[in-house]
Design goal:
Blueprint: E1 12-17, E2 20-25, H1 38-41, H2 51-68, E3 72-76, H3 83-91, E4 95-101, H4 105-117, E5 124-127, H5 131-137, E6 145-150, H6 157-165, E7 167-177, H7 180-183, H8 188-195, H9 205-222, E8 226-236, E9 239-248, H10 250-258, E10 260-265, E11 272-275, E12 294-300, H11 307-318, H12 325-338, E13 346-347, H13 348-355, H14 362-371, E14 376-379, E15 382-388, H15 392-405
Helix pairs in contact: 2-3, 2-11, 5-6, 6-9, 9-10, 11-12, 14-15
Bound molecules: S-adenosylmethionine and zinc ion.
S-adenosylmethionine binds at residues 45-46, 50, 54, 77-81, 83-84, 102-104, 107, 130-131, 151-153.
Amino acid sequence: MVDADFKTDFPSETVKEGKVKAVVPKLKAFVKQPSDYAPSKAPVFYNPVMELNRDISVLAFQAHQRIVNKEISICEPLTGSGIRGVRFAAEIHRVKKVVISDISERAVKLAKYNARLNELQDRVTVQHKDARCLLSCHGAPRKRFDIVDVDPFGSPVPYLDSAIRALRNNGLLAVTATDLAPLCGVHSKACVRKYGGKPLRTEYCHELAVRLLAGCIATVTAKHDIGIRVVFSHCTAHYVRVYVAIGYGAKKADGSVKNLGYMLHCFNCFHRETTRNPFDQRIEKCPECSSKMDYAGPLWLEKIFDKRFCELMAKENAHIAFRNSGKITKLLALAKEEAEAPATYYVLDKISDKLALPVPSVDAMLQILCDSGFQAFPTHFNSRGIRTEAPALTVQKLLQKLVAAA
Ligand SMILES: C[S@@+](CC[C@H](N)C(=O)[O-])C[C@H]1O[C@@H](n2cnc3c(N)ncnc32)[C@H](O)[C@@H]1O
Ligand SMILES: [Zn+2]
């Protein structure tokens, strides 16, 4: 039964998201000046902008449930208002248990209320623990979860080790990182310190952010003789999110470690290439323009989307009416194509800027690349981005040709 006397000791309101109702802080009440970031000013964290992130999580976890084809358990150890975990119990088929937790007492009270408000108290357990402590308590074989969702403030790195230990074989780890300044190379030292890889401020730095995070996850899991496959990832304005399927076994772990390496990048002509050799001398001379190149990494060089996983998510999305369904349809269609496309993308504005030419349309550029015998795909990371195996100087020449013909 819902506790009729329940009252928050701060301004709050009831919102609807997905299939649930939730009491959340009334954000407007916590904004004192225009620069205030309301979600973190409120006594309990709630960010309406992350609805898309939560919707996509519902789809990804449902896709995972369809793959394993059994009842599943989910842990969300940094839950805030509880809206995410409550949604998992309400919206994903065959979820037998969701354990949510927060270090803040007020958050725990609110999350408990939100579970009861949706009559899900039998399947949603709310704990008041440090995330690492909760996850470590679930490290023993029969206590592990099928899915762990790590959605913290900033970097998820402090939680990775305990999250991995709390996952059973063939489980799924979902991780959000909002610290894009380190991951995109604005604070390079912080990225090396936290993620163990050097970032690079390139036009495709958001993809590098995903690859640095995935590389860090692969390194942490390998220590436990666990291998990973990145089944889905995406980036929006202020965060990256990575979905990783894990598999127990030293061979699988060795396989993932082999997928770590470096991205070499030429800031003069935009050429880029991958290498697994940390002492690769090709960095000294760009094969396209002979300039000295820079590098990012170690990072994850393998796929960052799985085509079949994207298709399963799209299938779920087709019969759910989220507020964000349209956006998600577009994102999944792009990701499905990107799954098979070359790593990294060129950004047309950047090339046009260098050549002092007008920016052509993405469609026209995709067409001219295809007509010239190259694969070419758009990317969800950047609406002006193109993935292609065409060499950097060829991309430049084709852009010049296109502009000249216009
Ligand atoms: C970004 S918010 C979570 C948002 C939530 N996942 C959602 O989708 O609405 C991060 C939460 O982590 C909690 N937190 C911070 N450090 C923690 C820790 N060490 N253990 C557990 N919770 C923690 C904060 O109180 C906050 O509620
Ligand atoms: Zn070059």
